User: What shape does this take?
Amino acid sequence: MAGPRSATDSIAISVHGPQGVLDLLVPAGATAWDVAREYATRAGSQSIPLIYTRGGATLGPDEVLADLGLESGDLLVASPSAIREDMSSVRRTGRTPRKAAEEPSSAGALIAAAAALAAILAGMLGAYEGATWSSTVIRALLVAVVVGVAPVGRFQSPRALAAPAFAGAAVFAVLWDPAPERLPALVGATALTAAAVAAVARALAPRADEGLRVWIIAGCAVFALGAGVTLLGWSPPLAWSLLTILAMLAARFVPVLVVDVPDQYLLDFDRLAVTAWTARSRPKARRGQLVVPERFITRVATRAARLTEAAALAIMVCVPLGALLLLRVVPHNMDRIGARVLAVMAGLSLLLVARSYRHVRARLFLRLGGLITLAALVLDLAPELSVGNLTLLFGMCVVGALIMVVAAVATGRGWRSVSWSRRAELAESLSGAAAVAAVFVSSGAFRAVLEWTSSNAPS
Assistant: This one.
């Protein structure tokens, strides 16, 4: 059956060149440059030749074998006269003439973040009841959605990343209802709309963007949480407690999930493949001969970096949002204690988890998320404190920050030492455990159990 090959398939080909015939078993995702470089390495040549098909057509360096329709047993020709590049310079510099993987642009990310922030502010502006500008704002947001998902023009990737924010803001402005019991459904509908627009933008984009993938996953998760709590008739504090805790725990598992290395980069198919080709002429297995092209390594690392950055940005939004809404809707003093403990521990957990990230922007996003969560708690505490207590709290924060700076300088950025790393790991585990335990109180479950036992106690 004819059809596209997967990246894990292998193709057995013969390459004829000036040094003789070389039989290769290569992944279907390999390019003509990979075949030429492998031929030059095996043949001991100092130059990399051009690769031709049996009919004489020249193969470009970036052309993938699977896309050319090559099958096992096909023949390729290495030209002895047309030299692509000196092999010694490749070995010395480690560079290839292939175009490097596109790195995420800082300017594009800044444009997308600014556009998303403008969309959120516009959605809040359009949510005012009775305002004359509400309909105009909603129409402008919808036009921005259409422009954002259109796969034409410059800054296509930043526009696609910001389009879900505009769609969510439009739905938020249309469905806005200040009743606390309707907020989970409202936030869920907003998140689902953003996920749907992200899916459309990802389908229309020429390249699958990792940020749009995070939009889809996060939007569907928030929708399932908000809609599930509403349909089951549970209290809104439970929804916001779960949103805060799940986003906090996601920061721990993101680095494990984003790195996905294909099997052909980890396995030596020369040793494992048993086909008609290998049965006829089995190549000698040689340890250390498995060659992973630099382009593939760059692609895996770049994809993981983009996913980590996008996931950290989503966590930076979800944790403070959940803490803010939780502190706003908690009705009882007992539940409020749990909500405040949850906000403190979630913020501290993000600050401690950020130390294990080596991606600069992802680490910055997590730290900002932790600080915003702690700031939300301070704003919740401010009305209950007198001027003197607020001054004391501010002074304690300043003194504590100075002490931490002095300690960090004195220990040589001490998180990198083994002893400080163990202390940080212990503090991170304790803060995470305390945050999970606080959900039982902040959601009202502890109060419900206490009231039930009090009402059913023997007289």
